[in-house]
Amino acid sequence: MAVCARLCGVGPARGCRRRQQRRGPAETAAADSEPDTDPEEERIEAGSAPPSGTGGGPCAGPSPSPPRCSLLELPPELLVEIFASLPGTDLPSLAQVCTKFRRILHTDTIWRRRCREEYGVCENLRKLEITGVSCRDVYAKRINPRVKSGRFMRILPDYEHMGYRDVYTCLLHRYRHILGLWQPDIGPYGGLLNVVVDGLFIIGWMYLPPHDPHVDDPMRFKPLFRVHLMERKSATVECMYGHKGPHNGHIQEFRTWLREEWGRTLEDIFHEHMQELILMKFIYTSQYDNCLTYRRIYLPPSRPDDLIKPGLFKGTYGSHGLEIVMLSFHGRCARGTKITGDPNIPAGQQTVEIDLRHRIQLPDVENLRNFNELSRLVLEVREQVRQEQQQQQQDGEGPAPPQEPLSARGPPGAPAEEGGDPRGGAAAAEQPAQSGQPFVLPVGVSSRNEDYPRTCRMCFYGTGLIAGHGFTSPERTPGVFVLFDEDRFGFVWLELKSFSLYSRVQATFRNADAPSPQAFEEMLKNIQSLTS
Q1: Name one GO biological process term (predicted).
Q2: Distance CA 453, CA 48 (A)
Q3: Where are the alpha helices (DSSP H) in 49-163?
Q4: Which of 15, 93, 109, 300 shows its CA 20 to 30 Å from the CA of 1?
């Protein structure tokens, strides 16, 4: 009777529902002559009963216990709702409680909700439709674009006999650790791989910058590999890009790659040095078609006092084309780390570093056109930074307080002009961003994209990393960081007399946040050390 009481939650009584349903009249009469409780239940009640004489005098009996309500008494449809709200990782343990729970956990509605809330799966396995597109069309596009109609039914996953529990346990949960952003190890070129749940598959999409020099165009992407269920409880990992086994390239293959990578033909590229760089990249990347290793990368954490929202940007890099850069903020310093690279500055290196303590006030448009005037302002800031670093080393103290922008102070030794900000560059960086300040590139500074903004919010002193071929003789040279708006910034390379324009990658990435700021800093060190 104790076991039945625990399951039904009604306590010791001759009118137990579970026993009456299973017994006939004769068995019920015989059971009535038996004791109401077994020794185990008596021990439980004796341990839980209050001592006599408490609360009701010496002759008072034990106080009645409050009515107990068991989870098993709830109707199945309510249990389905409760179980569907639990994390999918807790459901296997719940199935071991009793047979009833295990039977309810076979309800497909529970696993469908977990697939939708945890991984964003919105497909209906029964209708075989995805947002109005038939599963046949989805398979042809996502699984094997070159599949012939005669082979389709033979290799189509058996979704009619596949449940959401199979999708969750055998696909989504099993491969959850590969979801997120990764950087392929392709020599100095790197890359950006986004592994996502796409429909009923897990697909690794390689993100590519738009064709040079259209930095504001959306990113391009192509599938690299996919994981899907071909049979029940059996996941298959397949490559969707590259070649099977060693192969010899030929001119037609190179022309196809050139159209996909650069959006033009070899005849359209007149610069001989640029042709050499493109051909070298094709030969180098073709060696990695069969086997690639990846390093996980995180998006930079955002703080309320950041100048703009950190993230991924597309930037122009001369003959190397467009590359992907990650902008992150570190106190009074901002850094641009290359996610994709080139033979001069490989992926993982810090291409630009911005000193947010030293703001540069640009001159009027006419003086800004003079490259020597801009160079004079930047070199004065560099000398100021050098002196502050020397003073810091001598004093053994923290960073020296920044001074006001040079154009407001005038030449060294001159008194500050009226209207200059006496609080210095750090305070100026904290002021509300100003808009509408005219901006033009100085005469002689080249830009791959002439359609750059003609107004900017503010400018800061920064340094850019330059090096010879093969990352030889790297050095940091002074430059100007130009903030245009929330989604665009630029950098003037004084040494190269060139201008890079950066535009934000307008894409939402799931499973890409760093677990902690320390984990993000460690990730930056790791990807930089691999190419140093």
Answers
A1: DNA damage response
A2: 78
A3: 76-84, 91-95, 99-104, 108-119, 135-142, 149-155
A4: 93
- Amino acid, res. 97: V
Token pair in block for residue 257: 């790659």
Average pLDDT over every residue of 405-419: 38
Helices (H), 263-370: 272-286, 365-368
Report helix, strand or coil for 60: coil
Residue type, 365: V
Highest mean pLDDT among 2-6, 335-339, 416-420: 335-339
Q: Which residues of 372-410 are buried (b: 16+ CB within 10 A; e: fewer)?
A: ebbbebbebbbebbeebeeeeeeeeeeebebbbbbbbbe
CA distances from 43 to 39, 49, 64, 135 (A): 6, 10, 17, 61
Which amino acid belongs to residue 169? T
pLDDT at 39 over 50: no
Q: State whether the Cα torsion 71-73-76-78 is positive or negative.
A: negative
8 A C-beta contact, residue 195 and residue 206:
no
Contact 183, 193 (CB under 8 A): yes
Both tokens of residue 476? Answer: 């940091």
Reduce the DSSP state of residue 24 to 3 states and report it: coil
Question: What DSSP string runs through 135-156?
Answer: HHHHHHHHT-TT--HHHHHHHS
Q: Classify residue 195 by its DSSP letter.
A: E
Q: At residue 198, does pLDDT exceed 50?
A: yes
Cα dihedral 373/375/379/382 (nearest 10): 120
What is the pLDDT at residue 147?
A: 41
